[in-house]
Design goal:
The protein has 197 residues and is mainly alpha-helical. The chain contains ten helices and four strands.
């Protein structure tokens, strides 16, 4: 389970309550719990670390010296939980979720399509065509599948930036680098920089 979500739920707080504590919208909390933030907001990490150390653990344990190891939040069982440990657990969860998504029906469609593509002499498919026609997903749906921030996918489609992050994930899923053209039609690449055509 996402460690940010687990702490929030163990503390019996809603997404709205947590959002109000750090002056963000509940949508931010939702997106972090879906893994759609490259790095969770520092205020959220600090708030949840504090919540874990002062609310979740004391309500469940009489000693603050050590707690039972929790593989989602605090694998070593040491107190106090540090923000860096919580972030590390978040990144582990994102990686594990991405690996689990490799077995999804969308990922299987990707693998089947590119097995066919590698046997044929097909031209490269554009990123947007790939997302819409092969994945059949919205920008948000694609971000959830790849466990990436929605704005990274939006920026990729508008400017061609962030292609390396998407390529790394899809390469791990068996998609050849040369199969997808990540540069939008209205852009060109000059000296490794994507610019308007």
């Amino acid at each position: 389970m996402n460690p940010y979500r687990k702490i929030r739920m163990d503390a019996h707080q809603s997404q709205k309550e947590v959002a109000n504590q750090i002056n963000v919208t509940p949508q931010v909390i939702l997106r972090v719990e879906q893994g759609l933030f490259s790095s969770p907001p520092p205020d959220l990490t600090a708030y949840l670390t504090n919540l874990y150390n002062h609310t979740v653990i004391p309500s469940n344990h009489t000693s603050n010296v050590a707690v039972a190891a929790d593989p989602d939040v605090n694998p070593e069982g040491t107190l106090p939980l540090s923000p860096s440990t919580l972030q590390r657990q978040y990144f582990r969860w994102v990686y594990a979720t991405r690996n689990a998504n490799k077995r999804s029906s969308s990922a299987k469609r990707i693998q089947e399509y590119f097995q066919y593509w590698s046997r044929s002499t097909s031209a490269r498919v554009s990123w947007k065509e790939f997302r819409k026609n092969i994945l059949g997903l919205s920008v948000a749906g694609t971000a959830k599948l790849l466990v990436l921030q929605i704005s990274l996918i939006q920026d990729l489609e508008k400017t061609g930036r962030n292609a390396a992050q998407v390529q790394d994930i899809l390469l791990d899923w068996g998609v050849p680098l040369e199969a997808i053209n990540y540069v939008p039609a209205n852009r060109i690449v000059r000296n490794n920089v994507t610019e308007l055509a």
